[in-house]
Amino acid sequence: MKKIKLLLGILLITGTVLAQSGQAPLSKGDKQLNLGLGFSSHGFPVYAGMDFAFHNDWTAGPAVKIIFDDDFGFSALGRVDYHWNRLIGIPSDWDFYAGANMGFRIDKDFNFDFGLQVGGRWYWNDKWGLNLEFGGGTGFGSLIGVSMKM
């Protein structure tokens, strides 16, 4: 029993220290623009989106994709992401996030789109960063692009 209490105490102290050593890439009220290209099971998307920080660890916002394949397609969705920086103790020039999205896609038909995403960013200065994301759900894909803090 004493070993379990000691282990729990160490985990609690370590978690508290790590949570305080990380810095959020976006603070509550900040926003950023995301632009880039990708690959998906529906074609090759060109995307644009905005992240609005409604908490130091959470963002939400819209995203649109123009999808090039045999036919032209369009996708619009809303997304929400949890940013892990403060929890796992990484500095604000890096960003690791995971989240969910929901919206619609129009190609040959009208389809509902929903899925999960995981991604990361590296900010090379206070304003600009590189973004890489992988996702799955009603389709799968990856995106690479740039992010600009506003």
Radius of gyration (CA) equals 18 Å
Strand content: over 45%
Amount of helix: 10-25%
Which runs of at least 5 residues are low in confidence (pLDDT < 50)? 14-20
In what order do the strands lie side by side in the largest sheet?
1-2-3-4-5-6-7-8
Mean pLDDT over the full residue set: 86
Number of individual domains? 1
Report the CATH topology name. Answer: Porin
Ends: how far apart? Answer: 51 Å
The major pleated sheet works out as:
8 strands, antiparallel, barrel
**Helical region count?**
2
Number of strands: 8
Q: What is the CATH architecture annotation?
A: Beta Barrel
What string gives the helices and strands in order? Answer: HEEEEHEEEE
Structural class comes to alpha+beta
Which CATH first-tier class would you pick?
Answer: Mainly Beta
What coarse outline follows from CA principal-axis ratios?
globular
What does this structure look like?
This protein is an alpha+beta fold. The protein has one domain (2-149): Beta Barrel (Porin), CATH 2.40.160. Helix content is 16%, strand content 61%. It contains 2 helices and 8 strands. The protein has helices at residues 2-21, 85-88, and strands spanning 31-40, 44-55, 58-68, 72-83, 94-106, 110-123, 128-137, 141-149. The chain has an 8-stranded antiparallel β-barrel with strand order 1-2-3-4-5-6-7-8. The longest helix is centred in the N-terminal third of the chain and has 20 residues, at 2-21. The protein is globular and about 55 Å long. The model is unreliable at 14-20 (pLDDT under 50).
